[in-house]
Amino acid sequence: MFEKLLAFSRHNKMAMLALMDALLLPLALWSAVFLRLGGYWDPKLNPHLWIFIVPPLWAIPIFIKLGLYRAVLKYLDDKIILTVFSGVTLSVLVLQAVLQMAHIWAMPRTSVIIFWVFAMAYIGGSRFLLRGLVRRIDAVDAPREHVIIYGAGHAGVQLMLALQAGREYRPMAFVDDNPELHRRTFRGVAVHPPRDLPQLVKDLEAKCILLAMPSVSRSRQREILETLELLRVPIKRLPGMADLVSGEARVEELKEVEIEDLLGRDPVPPKPDLLARNIRDKVVMVTGAGGSIGSELVRQIAKNQPARIILFEQSEYALYAIDQELDRAAGSPARTPVLGSVTDYQRLVQVMRAFKVDTVYHAAAYKHVPMVEHNPVAGIVNNVFGTDTTARAAEDCGVDTFVLISTDKAVRPTNVMGATKRMAELTLQTRHARGSATRFVMVRFGNVLGSSGSVVPLFRAQIKAGGPITLTHADITRYFMTIPEAAQLVIQAGAMGDGGDVFVLDMGQPVRIIDLARRMVHLSGLELKDASRPGGDIEIRITGLRPGEKLYEELLIGDNVLATDHERIMRAQEYCLPEAEMRDVLVNMDEACRRLDAPAAFALLQKAVREFHAAKATQDWVTLANAAS
Question: Which residues cross the membrane (predicted)?
Fold first, then answer.
């Protein structure tokens, strides 16, 4: 029957609540008088029985005015007490005035005060009783997953309240490191120490652990996640405090634990003067503006008040996507999306001169090692000649600063992609050495988390599909950095140096990729499948190193490294080629590429990049197909 009542329209429910109050108020007054008279009835009140039924005549209009009937029962909170208090108090004052005007002296004076107590209890208590019934019926109708909330601070309590009002999760317990909170209870949910977690997960049949600690440092969050990993329970987290404060996210918008939470370091606040030096009130051009690094550079540049951003991109869709994102962003600076190739000198010059570009961030490149390994001519054309052409256009157009986004794979490369990026560095160093007016800066860093082709989204997709996770070698390691941190450091490094500098970003400690895969499996609440656990969920399958792939990456060619004004940016001192030698290499390499002679172009790349140790399996697929035919 109660469920049928809940199905009534909103107006019908409001009318039913008003009717309930119309019955409870006379009952409250009768209870107050009966209690005051000690269970006996005073015959002197018989002529005034009408006074027991009239309080609703003014109380209900007061309740309506105060919005008592607009509150949704399921989502009632403690604020309703203030509304009931105000409404009942006003009603009691009106009752007292009516008693005085009607000269009803037989009514005991203190019964009015007792009536206030009973009315508060009946009106307020009925609301919370109904709320409990509604939530109980809702819980039966929609069974919810049992969850444990890690963090019993303000964010954790707010999350619990939001979940209790929802239909997806049922918070069963809090866990918190603070001993002062242990054994406390919030809305019936008790706080436990972290050591109780394994037993809590088992006893409460928890299906998920929710991290509600948006303001803790990343290092502390990483420590917590390492302990939770052993429980083999899926873990979700609140958005960051910045997103909560800005209103971009709500408490109940839980997110999957990102691998950044495990690998990322506590960010060092950027230096505003370095961020703004090449950007504020300047025309800034980003090549490859739609790529993983390029698009994040655009986002960071947009925050630093450029006069205009030139989005230069070859992919129409990628250009459209970043342009639309900026269009939706509040306070976005003036921008111009431009389709074009970094190998098209005339187009580059046309754009740079038309907009009077001050700073160029060159992020356009082919970066996927296996693709470039078997398409060496395309890799050389885009990465080497694309960089040299863009740099020549920048020089000819009087651009102040040119920043190349390089890679750790350029250090003692074993693949074509890394060798082309090192060759791109060399072309800029040669230009600087001959006395260019444009300041050329190179910034070298490792893998960025979440970029296209990164192992993180690949592993996540493989886990979602039920496995296996494919890994090329059990001992392979990589450096990792978040995309925003990498972009900020690139911008700051680009503001340093006099030109010809190779800056290296502090990438922290290298990570074993197999450990990364294992942790991603565990944090998904799954079990690894191997010889000792044949009944596990996800298998890690070793496929062997791909052509040109290293077991580990380096950031420096030599040991010559100098500190800078930023603790996570270092300056490398490395060799460069004389201008005559560089000119001959580029001329011959250009001719080989025009002939589509992959072996000749590859040989010249090996000659120019002295430390290039090419993989034996490197082969151009097209050349191989022609030879076979």
Answer: 48-68, 80-106, 112-130
